[in-house]
Amino acid sequence: MEAARSERSTDKLPALQGPVMHRTRLQVWFIRVCSSILIWTCLVQLVAVGGLWHPRLLTGYPGSTKMSAHQERSLPTLPPLPARNYISNGFLKISCNGGLNQMRSAICDMVTIARLLNLTLVVPDLDKTSFWADPSNFEDIFDVEHFINSLRDEVRIVKRLPKRFGPRYGYQPLVKAPVSWSNEQYYLQQILPLFAKNKVIHFNRTDSRLANNGISPELQKLRCRVNFQALKFTPQIEALGNKLIHIIQQKGPYSALHLRYEMDMLAFSGCTHGCTEEEAEELKQLRYAFPWWREKEIVSEEKRSRGLCPLTPEEMALILQALGFHRETQIYIASGEIYGSERRLAALRAAFPRIVKKEMLLDPEDLRQFQNHSSQMAALDFMVSVASNIFIPTYDGNMARVVEGHRRYLGFKKTFQLDRRRLVELLDLHQNGTLSRDEFSVAVRLAHETKMGQPSLRRVVKDKPKEEEYFYANPHECLCEVTGGANLSPA
């Protein structure tokens, strides 16, 4: 009993089994190393605060401040942290579902759950059966050695299950999907006891399985540590992503437009505004072809009026002009293939001729290794979006939210949180002649004065977790060192 109490006190997280090391010189060194990591993290964030949001940037080209040399400096190499000493309660195997950023946030949650329950985590399996059919493994996207070693003081991570738990020896793990948006008590009371009978549990769905709110601060900060430090892209992705960023920055400041007007999103959402009848039918048939896209009969215009559709390229041309972006603004399109291709980009390109995409800037040979690997291509867009002077997502999907969170972490870099419901109202009023161009511009700007990634508390909606602000879009528990708690206003 004394040993168990000692471990809980030392780790500040629930620990159900395992001896605890006595205070030794190693522990003193460990505490010093942890302190140095915290100091360096805060310094990096404080340096980045130089790019804080400012409302006056709405006039002329918004957010054209260039990153200083100090911001580009990398952290010094620190000695490896000592491995955490605990007795594992079992192995946690996970199969992530969804696209790159949905899987990324899920991995952060699963590491946190493994730490809470004193489990050994197996390097995650990535989704290969979704719409994109990407065959990439974890090690094809993330630096697996860095992932394992950078978290060794928190949780034990192995690349594969021991052979004795393999199918060759007739072992069958318990396969289940945890309940969505669950808190610590669910995992301690409902999941942990299952490991007494099953030494291996396989979570076959991982999206949104940990609550946004009501989680202890230590666990929330661990989620951030995994997201911002442990999940590092492979050297190949990092090198090409940095090359792409350098090419764009040589041409001047740029905004990243996450134009989520791709075939899968339109089919899934049932949004067909601006499409021909033939295109609308094609999207409908695609939706019916995927059984897990449950909602079948969708009234597109009704959904659009509720702000539930991605904004079209034509709509974004008008919105960017209203927000004060001038014609010579360099805009990077962060997305896959736009549905309708160049025909749908014509209005946007006419308004902003300096539109660029990775396929335009990189040699085809550079991209060859990433072809048919949508998650690896998305990783390049992720890097460019995080580094951009301004980020504008047209839909609040997983990439938009995770990029927003990264930009907050780097000093609340300017990110437009477009109010699609209000924008659709204003667009319709402008296009039917009710609002003049100037009136439309003023209304658009007023609607977004407080929606540019400023420091704020994460929005909580009691008993409706799906309607809450997503943790990874605004992990304010991890940002207090930068802002000071008093500067965080309610969202």
Short description:
This protein has 491 residues and is an alpha/beta fold.
Secondary structure layout:
Layout: H1 2-11, H2 25-48, H3 69-72, E1 91-94, H4 100-116, E2 120-122, H5 138-141, H6 144-150, E3 156-158, E4 174-176, H7 184-191, E5 200-203, H8 217-230, H9 235-250, E6 254-258, H10 263-269, H11 277-289, H12 300-305, H13 313-322, E7 330-333, H14 341-351, E8 355-356, H15 358-361, H16 364-368, H17 374-387, E9 390-393, H18 398-409, H19 420-431, H20 437-447, E10 456-457, H21 480-483, E11 489-490
Parallel strand pairs: 1-2, 1-5, 2-3, 4-5, 6-7, 6-9, 7-8, 10-11
Helix pairs in contact: 4-8, 9-17, 10-11, 13-14, 17-18, 19-20
Q: What does the model show?
A:
With 491 residues, the protein is an alpha/beta fold. It is 43% helix and 7% strand. The protein has 21 helices and 11 strands. It has helices at residues 2-11, 25-48, 69-72, 100-116, 138-141, 144-150, 184-191, 217-230, 235-250, 263-269, 277-289, 300-305, 313-322, 341-351, 358-361, 364-368, 374-387, 398-409, 420-431, 437-447, 480-483, and strands spanning 91-94, 120-122, 156-158, 174-176, 200-203, 254-258, 330-333, 355-356, 390-393, 456-457, 489-490. Strands 3-2-1-5-4 form a 5-stranded parallel sheet, with helices on one face. It has a 4-stranded parallel sheet with strand order 8-7-6-9. Strands 10-11 form a two-stranded parallel ribbon. Helix 14 (341-351) links the parallel strand 7 and strand 8. Helix 9 (235-250) packs across helix 17 (374-387) and helix 17 runs parallel beside helix 18 (398-409). The longest helix is centred in the N-terminal third of the chain and has 24 residues, at 25-48. The two termini are 44 Å apart. Residues 1-74 and 482-487 have low confidence and may be disordered. Belongs to the glycosyltransferase GT106 family. It is a single-pass type II membrane protein. Keywords: Carbohydrate metabolism, Fucose metabolism, Glycoprotein, Glycosyltransferase, Membrane, Signal-anchor, Transferase, Transmembrane, Transmembrane helix.
